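Record format v2
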Amino acid sequence: MSILIKDAIILTQDNEREVRKGDIYIEDDAIVEISDRIKIEAEYTIRGKLVMPGLINTHTHLPMTLMRGYGDDLTLEEWLTTRIWPIEKKLDKRMVEAGTRLALLEMISTGTTTCSDMYFFEDTIASTCKEMGMRCFAGFSIIDFDTPEMKKEMLLPECEKFIRRWKDDGLVTPVVAPHSTYSCSPETLQKSAELAEKYDMMLHTHCSETRKEVYDVVERYGVRPVEQLEKNGMLTEKTVLAHCGWITKEEVRQIARAGACVSHNPVSNMKLATGGFTPLPELFDAGACVTLGTDGAASNNKLDMFETMKFAALIHKHHRWDAQIVTAQQTLDMATVNAASYLGINAGSIEEGKKADLICLDTNMPNLAPMHNPISHVVYAASGFNVSSTIIDGKPLMLEREFHYFNKQKILEDAEKAKNELVSD
Amino acid sequence: MSILIKDAIILTQDNEREVRKGDIYIEDDAIVEISDRIKIEAEYTIRGKLVMPGLINTHTHLPMTLMRGYGDDLTLEEWLTTRIWPIEKKLDKRMVEAGTRLALLEMISTGTTTCSDMYFFEDTIASTCKEMGMRCFAGFSIIDFDTPEMKKEMLLPECEKFIRRWKDDGLVTPVVAPHSTYSCSPETLQKSAELAEKYDMMLHTHCSETRKEVYDVVERYGVRPVEQLEKNGMLTEKTVLAHCGWITKEEVRQIARAGACVSHNPVSNMKLATGGFTPLPELFDAGACVTLGTDGAASNNKLDMFETMKFAALIHKHHRWDAQIVTAQQTLDMATVNAASYLGINAGSIEEGKKADLICLDTNMPNLAPMHNPISHVVYAASGFNVSSTIIDGKPLMLEREFHYFNKQKILEDAEKAKNELVSD
């Protein structure tokens, strides 16, 4: 397959963060050429857009689109115990597939080209991502409870099978995802870490999302969550820590020393009123890798990474009474190059030889006019709805807001049906 | 003109906050009938949407779209002195018109049906709103400096002429808008208040946006901004106070007692890192009227009231560590019924006899599926881009995202040209 993008404004996100004009030629899964004028016939031609690397969402729970708007204005604990957990018990493969398809449709239509998921039925999620063409780090959840899918003692052995099944796939990368330090025993954490190490896979876990969680872990184990992860082999240079809203300066240093990565989820944290906030400036200063996530649609309530970028930049300005503390460029870096580099994918910037994971924005829209500064526009003025085309692994999954490989209507209807089954008595 | 909306889910925002299904029939500027099935032929027919009152933006500076993205990541003071004020000096009528048109295009396309503006060249802004069909409370700025339009001593007499010219218009309502307590002397405030009283017009001013402003006013006048307004006749039941981020509990009580209205602008306040935050729960408890605004596009950087609703609900949950403190319903009320009631327009809810200021959302989109709760979807999951049709005063300004009365392309091009003139040396 070949795609030619003509007359683009390109936010390269290369080392110089160059913004340039030019054409881009894509063949198969790669960006082959970027230059002032390319005269090649391609299968698809796109004209006159703002082109940027696709956004990378490092923490989500794809099937939770089915619970979008089912229980708002509740604390995390109430939300989980009275709303989410009771209906999660009813989930089956078919519903998970319907919810995942809806999530991918939303992500593709709003410019996300890679996601890092963790949930139950992860094999179903992985297959759905593969089939729809989403690059996915699929986190197989490990937890000390029975899940809607299987008994707890089956989780680690099934996770190993899952890794073997997916480890050589080009689009889906299996990840070991012990849920958290409050829901996994030290033994479970250790075994998860060993499993990840055995296959050289990544780890993904929740860390210090709420204050209660921190003090529960301190009470039970005498250490805070980050130290608990470290003690049990989970704090590695291949670990994604979601949230980190309640970490100390010492934990910031531990994370940076270990080379772990933080996934900051501002919208979900604010909506659930988790109170504490990921200390971005301190993490930056310590040299830690920081990326962005939406969390699941049930606590966000959407999966639009443009919105997440804006919330991320603004909440920290507000928090520190400092309008310069997290800039537009730093925010865009978190959602593109930082995440790609941490996850080890040859994407996140638009350069020859990189994977063709990129998006085109229609700047001919009121909210992106006039054009002073494209970086500013992308972070502060754009919406996922400005995305006109989404290309993942060289495949044009959306072109001029039309989906070429899947039936939008059927996906929306299936999700509605699955939701009705979930909430029926 | 007549419009029939068939098979709608209607967020009525009536006294019972009823959500119902049905048809809506609009004739001329009014909602004539709402019932289960209406069999009337109408000029326009819309089908199967979520219908809600149009959103009301109570604080903006329309022409500042021209400065969208021109100077980000700066404090309010730096932003004003190094970026905004130097180029504002170059503004002329033609540029103001171009910027206003762009703002209205953006607002209409994202579901705003009434705005409360304040700027220079307000007569030009008023005419542009009238021509494009936007319901506007046009605030003629009064300030103790010469403006790009006229000498300071001309402002009050010109404002009076402006009031006479517009006071009987059905779409544009003139408003007296002294800029703030730090930029207007007591005498200017008093004369503004007298002028408003003489014609029974509303007042609109900035109030306690930054901490510096508060302490400057305290140092100069010995009282805080709200008391300074009260002392000078400006705190009335027809006053809109933008921001109120740094007000005390006593000022909350003063505002409520006077029956003044607060316009909360969360996105702009966060972006400019003004630090303090409008005390919504205390204002609600005191019975004050609270509404929402975007502020100008230069400090937001868009004019999407859906985004503003989400920021408003989430920042307070985060601030108070309480997910219930500002609910989806309260947020929607601020942006619809509260504002309409304060401004004295017969709109803000969908009921027979009300003005036809309403919007239709296309729920057949990934971010609004599945449907558990439409109020939740509107506040937490929707974007202005979900708006498919916008009707103001019974006129369908946007239908299925097409503009029927103006040339989008020309508006975008004129704004780009005006911007180029503004930033050229």
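Chain B has 14 helices and 17 strands.
Chain B touches chain A through 74 residues (CB under 8 Å).
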